[in-house]
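in:
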């Protein structure tokens, strides 16, 4: 999933629409006994919700690292009781 779709505003609430769509898939798959790895696909740790022409890189400021922690805390809280959900903090990090 793309971080900015699930959390359209940094440190804001999760999108109810995208959160429900993700939950439906997770519930279906884990209900069949599968393990699901939730994995942000933001290639190189970029969040592009602020300005799609100039993405913000997570490692560029300590404050922005806090926003990643905030996002994952909210996501993890949604699945904390499902031991078949694993977290992949960032897909294909680079630079």
């Amino acid at each position: 999933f793309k971080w900015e779709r699930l959390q359209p505003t940094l440190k804001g609430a999760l999108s109810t629409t995208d959160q429900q769509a993700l939950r439906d898939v997770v519930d279906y798959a884990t209900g069949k006994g599968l393990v699901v790895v939730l994995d942000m696909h933001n290639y190189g740790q970029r969040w592009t919700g602020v300005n799609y022409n100039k993405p913000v890189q997570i490692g560029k400021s300590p404050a922005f690292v806090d926003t990643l922690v905030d996002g994952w805390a909210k996501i993890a809280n949604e699945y904390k009781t499902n031991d078949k959900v694993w977290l992949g903090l960032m897909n294909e990090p680079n630079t």
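note: The helical segments are 3-6, 16-31, 62-79.
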